[in-house]
Design a protein that fits this description.
With about 325 residues, this protein is mostly helical. It has 6 helices and 2 strands. It has helices at about 25-85, 90-95, 105-115, 130-180, 185-200, 200-255, and strands at about 300, 305-310. It has a two-stranded antiparallel ribbon. The longest helix is centred in the N-terminal third of the chain and has 62 residues, at about 25-85. The N and C termini lie far apart (about 255 Å).
């Protein structure tokens, strides 16, 4: 057997008692360790506080940047909306008369769109993250509202312009139909028809002017031709009347001349010769010429035997 195995408990030697006392040097280091640990704990707490503050400051800084960005976007959107309100297209649409559009309701919609209030600006003057976040949210909400107002305004302006074009096309089409056969140059109506098909307001305006000018030219030419025809008709009628009068005059001049010779019969005179003096027989004396005065009633007999009024011949 091995010697170790043959040993009994009684034969096992007792170990020497262990001295558990701390050396004096190690006892002096314990307060140092505790102090270091306390300092480390304090430093750790201080570091945690500083870290938290740094973290919180970072969060506030980020919130402020986000707020400022939102406010900047709001400013740009509001500026764009103001520019849209003063744009030439908007001004022209606002000046449009109800008679110039096909649908007058578009003008009412435009007035409502222009009447939207311009939003008030906001500032990122909050000191905490919560306040900054609230301001940023308000700015974002206002920006969306302004963009919606701008979109509505653009749509209203386009609606008015479209309605104006509809009215222009309708009027041009009416002019095209009404001027058939009434223009001096038919090409002007063909150009108008093409402009209507393209819905080109500028081309329509140009074509409408050309058609109107051509219509006026034809009207003038027709009027002048009518006046000339009337003058010629009047001149011809006057010439015919003059010729007819001349013919009648010539006819009256060439009629046979009739001579009128007054005829009358002398009044019969009766008388009874009276004789005086001697006898016609035997040696008596007497005149062979009877002595009488004929009564002629104002007529006399000339010695040659002709009658002459007013003379009385006595023998």
């Amino acid at each position: 057997m091995d010697e170790k195995d043959s040993m009994t408990p009684d034969t096992i030697p007792q170990s020497t008692p262990v001295d558990r006392t701390v050396p004096a040097g190690r006892k002096n280091r314990r307060p140092v360790v505790i102090g270091v640990a306390a300092v480390a704990a304090i430093a750790l707490v201080a570091g945690g506080v500083c870290g938290y503050r740094a973290y919180e400051n970072h969060r506030v800084s980020m919130a402020r940047e986000a707020c400022q960005s939102a406010v900047t976007d709001l400013g740009k959107t509001a500026k764009s909306y103001k520019a849209l309100l003063g744009a030439d297209a908007t001004t022209a649409a606002l000046k449009t008369d109800a008679t110039s559009v096909k649908d007058a309701k578009t003008l009412d919609t435009l007035k409502q769109a222009v009447g939207a209030k311009t939003p008030a600006m906001v500032k990122c003057d909050a000191s905490g993250k919560a306040g900054l976040d609230e301001t940023a949210a308000k700015a974002d909400k206002t920006t969306k509202a302004v963009k919606a107002d701008a979109k509505a305004l653009r749509a209203a302006v386009r609606a008015v312009e479209s309605s104006k074009l509809d009215k222009t096309v309708a009027d041009a089409d009416g002019l095209y139909k009404a001027t058939e056969g009434n223009v001096q140059d038919e090409k002007t109506r063909e150009a108008l028809k093409q402009a209507i098909a393209k819905r080109d307001a500028g081309a329509i305006a140009k074509a409408v002017k050309a058609v109107n000018d051509s219509t006026a030219a034809k009207t003038k030419a027709d009027s002048e031709a009518k006046a000339k025809a009337e003058q010629e008709a009047q001149a011809q009628a006057a010439a015919e009347a003059a010729a007819q009068a001349q013919a009648q005059t010539q006819q009256s001049y060439s009629a046979p001349q009739q001579s009128y010779t007054p005829s009358y019969s002398a009044p019969q005179q009766s008388y009874t010769p009276s004789y005086s003096g001697g006898s016609t027989s035997g040696g008596g004396s007497g005149s062979s010429v009877p002595d009488f005065v004929p009564s002629s009633g104002g007529y006399g007999v000339e010695p040659d035997g002709s009658w002459h009024p007013g003379n009385i011949i006595q023998h």
